[in-house]
Amino acid sequence: MTTDPWQYFTFADNGEPLQLDSGRSLGPVTLAYETHGSLNADRSNAILILHAFSGNSHVANHAHTGGRDDGPGWWEAMVGPGLGIDTDKYFVICSNILGSCCGSTGPGSPNPETGKPYGLDFPMVTIGDMVRAQKSLIDHLGISRLYAVIGGSVGGMQVLQWCVSYPEMVRTAIPLATTMRHSALCIAFNEVARQAIMADPKWRKGKYPDDDPPELGLAVARMVGHITYLSDKAMHRKFGRKLQEREDLSFRFESDFQVESYLNYQGTKFVRRFDANSLLYITKASDYFDLNNEKEATINRLEKAPIKFLVVSFTSDWLYPTYQSRELVQALKRNGCNVSFCEIHADCGHDAFLLPNKRLTTLIRGFLDGAKTA
After folding, report:
1. CATH 3.40.50.1000 is the classification of domain 7-182+288-370
2. Which residues are bridge partners to 49 per DSSP?
3. pLDDT, tens digit, for every residue of 139-180?
4. Is the whole-model pTM more than 0.85?
């Protein structure tokens, strides 16, 4: 039997709520998190790993380090003894983001004023708010400076926000497969996903019961999102135009092709583990993220910041293509930052950063080890 690997930290419950970028406040706030490895005597070996939008705190199996067997984590190939992020050397923290449905406070959490789930009464949150909440957790753990902050996709946005908001607390930063701000294409895909949920009659303007959520809308939203995580080559290699358990076309609106069946499966599986309202809030937060705004390019707050950056992109990532990582690198260099960049050849699309990759593992391991003497 798998046990809950998470620990919980609750704050903003003493009359001092968390102040949000929207102007509203929130409290109490609970963050689910898990840790791996041991914190050294001077608390200088802590690494904060930040997950992508639908991820959670379970980054790796604790059985690797002699703990309980809680099943594979979402970055099992990267986090553990002797791996790219070596838990024999580093104390790893992974926190579930604010607004999620995986243990942290989000729209599905009880509203203390009513005792019922927040639903759309939950305040809009930003990537900055998520990082502000994580900062409270890191303070609670007694860590004054993080050895590294690492994350991909929306996790990469959080990495960048950490560096902008708390540069004195970050020694090294590894943003993977990410961007300084969403393109119109990304915003468009997110809006289609949100509209799919809100068009489902079971959504009920966010007031759906736990036992009757807008399953169809959420499944379609996941199908749309999942397409953006893959590449044309990966989909061709895996599916091509192969038929699903049939020898000829059905001439009906059924799943004739394997790729159709696969997307339906992904949508159904997602419904069992994720909350529709959380998807609305988190996608909106990622759309609002903008470190290179024409009015105020907050990336410029990093001028001569004492942070060592490793920016990584992947050749087949069309959601956050390499040109966006290069724009980030150029912005960091303009601000006098110490930055290295690597584009990794991978044909599996945006999800490449989550998959086993020897080059990525070697790159991260070498970067972290090299920072010790830098």
Report:
1. no
2. 94, 150
3. 999 999 999 999 999 999 999 999 999 999 999 999 999 999
4. yes
